[in-house]
Amino acid sequence: MVNIFVITYSTYGHINKVAESVVTGLKKAGAVVSRYQIAETLSDEILAKMHAPPKPDLPVIQAKDLVEADAFLFGFPTRYGTTPAQVKAFFDSTGQLWTKQALAGKPAGFFFSTASQHGGQEVTVFSTLPILAHHGMIYVPFGYANAHLFDNSEVIGGSAWGAGTIANGDGSRQPSQKELEIAENQGENFAKVAAKLAA
């Protein structure tokens, strides 16, 4: 069975909620799933002022841990159309793996959240692809594999680049049922692709 790491950074919990559905889909397709979170770089004092909830009880991923997985799904919010500083710091710590090309050939995908419909969901992934390219990893997009992505009757996060949610500027909007269904679908599809590549 393919071993997939779901690695997230979430300030207010929206991404972790989406990750739960991603994991459901991965397991539905028979994958072995391990959940990790990326280390926080903000102090407890700053997080308190931001009214951020406590972090989930998940192990913090270290760069050296990545070699144990066959594939990865990364989830994080956007920061001005790119990754949060915490995620960039994590990727910056993978230099030793890069020198050995230890992650080459491993598939990876993304899911994300933004405050608004046009807050950079697609460009957040696009701006992260050079990291995969330098590691020799294989980007697996979601495509339009779920009919909800064609639904314009309501606000729905996600795109061909991956599942997503829209949180509102104040974080008041939680992932909708349709967004969670898209996330589960992405997990299931990704696991099938990862299994083929691992074989």
From TrEMBL:
Gene Ontology, cellular component aspect: membrane
UniProt GO MF annotations: FMN binding; NAD(P)H dehydrogenase (quinone) activity
Flavodoxin-like domain boundaries: 4-190
SUPFAM superfamilies given in the database record: Flavoproteins
Family matches, as PANTHER family: FLAVODOXIN-RELATED PROTEIN WRBA-RELATED, FLAVOPROTEIN-LIKE PROTEIN YCP4-RELATED
Family, similarity comment: Belongs to the WrbA family.
Protein name as annotated: Flavodoxin-like domain-containing protein
Lineage summary: Eukaryota, Fungi, Fungi incertae sedis, Zoopagomycota, Kickxellomycotina
